Amino acid sequence: MPVLEPPVDLNRFPVTHDFWIDESNNPDFKDFYTVFDNHHPGVDFDLPENIPIKASTPGMVVRREFHQGMGNTLAIRLGNIYVLYAHLKDFCVDLGQLVRSEQLIAHSGNTGTATTEPHLHFELRDLTKSPLKDSVFEPIFGQEIKNFQPTFNYVVNNTNSQKTFVSLAVSYFGLPSYASTIRNHNPDFKNLPFDSPLPQGQPILIPSPKLETGS
Fold first, then answer.
1. How wide is the angle at C-alpha 168 spanned by C-alphas 167 and 170, nearest 5°?
2. Using CA atoms, how far apart are residues 169 and 171, in angstroms rounded to an integer?
3. Are 61 and 96 in contact (CB under 8 A)?
């Protein structure tokens, strides 16, 4: 069972904004978290820019982009656990890269519109749960991630976009080249082209990169 390590030195930079705080009446934050019913979906660390940010778990970099609200955003997937780091100044890892726990992955910043000062927003999501507001859960540093699963089933939802092996590879591995990896773990669809739509409601097994299993 993986242990959740803090992304920064807690003695220097303790958590300053706790998980699931109701911000409905906060004039600074009330518009940031509408998709989460106005609750803070992670924890924040107030810290100056350019502080090294370390991976809280091993895993694969599946997201590395600029998001309007969260600014420079990085996500690392460990099985069904999606670890998100936001408002970063820069990135030190690439999409699809396997990382070790406590490896340097970025530096702190103040990017994006959902910020009032330099800080790190840190968020955990359980990919077995939906909608998004139900997937986030409280980070407890120094303890095992009890809801961790090395593999999980994604139930195809084509409501907003057609899902294919390619799109799932980008979402869960960061790169389209992993479409074959996902298809190989779903033999019922061994003849389905990588870019063909997957059936609505179909469970698709999402495997894990080698680093996630400790091999």
1. 65
2. 5
3. yes
SS3 149: coil
Buried b (16+ CB within 10 A) or exposed e, 14-40: ebebebbeebeeeeebeebbeebebeb
Cα separation, 72 vs 87, whole angstroms:
5
Q: What is the pTM of this model?
A: 0.92
Residue 32 in domain: yes
Segment (H or E) for 168: helix 165-173
Instruction: Confirm if 53 and 101 have CB atoms less than 8 A apart.
Output: no
What's the domain range around 190? 152-213
Question: In this structure, are 169 and 80 located in the same domain?
Answer: no
Helix, coil or strand: residue 135:
helix
pLDDT in tens, 31-57: 666 666 778 789 999 999 999 999 999
Tell me the CATH number at 130. Answer: 2.70.70.10
